[in-house]
Write a structure and sequence with these properties.
Blueprint: E1 6-8, E2 11-13, E3 17-19, H1 35-46, E4 51-58, H2 78-90, E5 94-100, E6 114-115, E7 129-130, H3 133-153, E8 157-162, H4 167-172, H5 186-198, E9 206-212, H6 223-233, E10 240-244, H7 261-271, E11 275-278, H8 284-292, E12 298-300, H9 303-307, H10 311-315
Parallel strand pairs: 3-4, 3-12, 4-5, 5-8, 6-7, 8-9, 9-10, 10-11, 11-12
Antiparallel strand pairs: 1-2
């Protein structure tokens, strides 16, 4: 099944393989894309990936994971982002973008660090300010503005980053959200973000939410809890869930090939929505199994695609597929 086509709304993929968002830390300090990004994303498209989701792209300057993150907080960012989209499309893949606010995990030299509550992530991070109601409304508007710009740039899928301990997840987790107002219920913030985003993101395009389905500590988010949250907002037009784990608490994770597939399967079961699953998968047979066994609908390959951009092309035959090779590289086909 891995190399069969897959369609969701207007998005048609040539296979079930996804390159997930991976921070590249290669933009200039104003958040603009450059030649590195054009080469990086085009190469993975040439390499046969069905869906490429661009790295966490910051919706505000003080919401960056690092000062070298790509940005989407300014209309001036759109032309560079559009070039990334065009290169992905021209080389046979579908383009997604993950939009993000890092919250208390932002590392920037200027601007106020914001979070649901004034609780630090670790000693290596600045202590955040608890967000005021105005701060919350401003960030919600920034998510909507980012969605509008993503549509203008031509992305086929928009992914809200609600995983790995960044701002949306900080609201969702009782560990990082100790507010006493209505936003103590993290679903309120997520719902307001989605309401604002869906006013500008076209209904025919795919809306995705990435989540951490567990925090690996007592008192944190569980697959059942995150699924209940998803079920409370899916009526707003949520199309697919990208399932990950961890990131909000410093904890050692027992990571092994496919270690998050069970989480993806559980979220799919409890929500009834399609899911993207994975976790340290670097074996095409395991990727095929993940999809064929219906543990997930799409499977993401991360670090292996950093090491081997043409992994999908070169490994397809291992699971019985002889997929089309780029004409320019036919002499190198094994």
């Amino acid at each position: 099944m891995l190399f069969e086509t897959y369609q969701l709304k207007s998005m048609k993929l040539k296979n079930h393989v996804v390159m997930p968002p991976m921070c590249m830390y290669s933009a200039n300090t104003e958040g603009f894309a450059n030649d590195f990004h054009f080469v990086h994303y085009a190469t993975r498209a040439i390499g046969g990936v069905g869906l490429i989701i661009q790295e966490a792209t910051a919706i505000t300057p003080n919401g960056r994971i690092s000062e070298n993150d790509l940005g989407i907080w300014n209309d001036a960012h759109v032309p560079g982002l559009k070039k990334i989209v065009d290169l992905i499309h021209q080389n046979g893949s579908v383009a997604g973008i993950q939009v993000n606010h890092a919250g208390r995990k932002a590392k920037v030299s200027s601007g106020v660090i914001l979070a649901p509550s004034a609780l630090g992530y670790s000693n290596d991070y600045e202590m955040p300010h608890e967000m005021t109601k105005k701060d919350i409304k401003d960030v919600i508007k920034a998510f909507a503005d980012a969605a509008r710009r993503a549509d203008e740039a031509g992305y086929d899928l928009l992914e809200l980053h609600g995983a790995h301990g960044y701002l949306i997840f900080q609201f969702l987790s009782p560990i990082s959200n100790q507010r006493t107002d209505e936003y103590k219920d993290g679903k309120v913030f997520l719902r307001e973000v989605m309401e604002a985003v869906t006013k500008v993101w076209p209904k025919e395009k795919v809306l995705c939410l990435r989540v951490s389905a567990t925090e690996y500590v007592e008192g944190g988010v569980t697959p059942e809890m995150i699924s209940e949250i998803i079920n409370s907002v899916k009526d707003l037009g949520l199309d697919i869930i990208h399932v990950s784990s961890g990131g909000n608490v410093l904890v050692k994770i027992n990571a092994y090939p496919g270690y998050q597939l069970g989480l993806a399967e559980r979220v799919k079961e409890l929500t009834g929505l399609p899911v993207i699953g994975g976790g340290l998968i670097s074996d095409i047979v395991l990727a095929e199994h993940a999809v064929a066994s219906k543990r997930c609908d799409l499977v993401y390959l991360g670090r292996v695609l950093l090491r081997e951009p043409y992994f999908v092309l070169n490994q397809a035959k291992e699971v019985g597929y002889d997929i089309e090779y780029p004409k320019a590289y036919l002499r190198g086909k094994k």
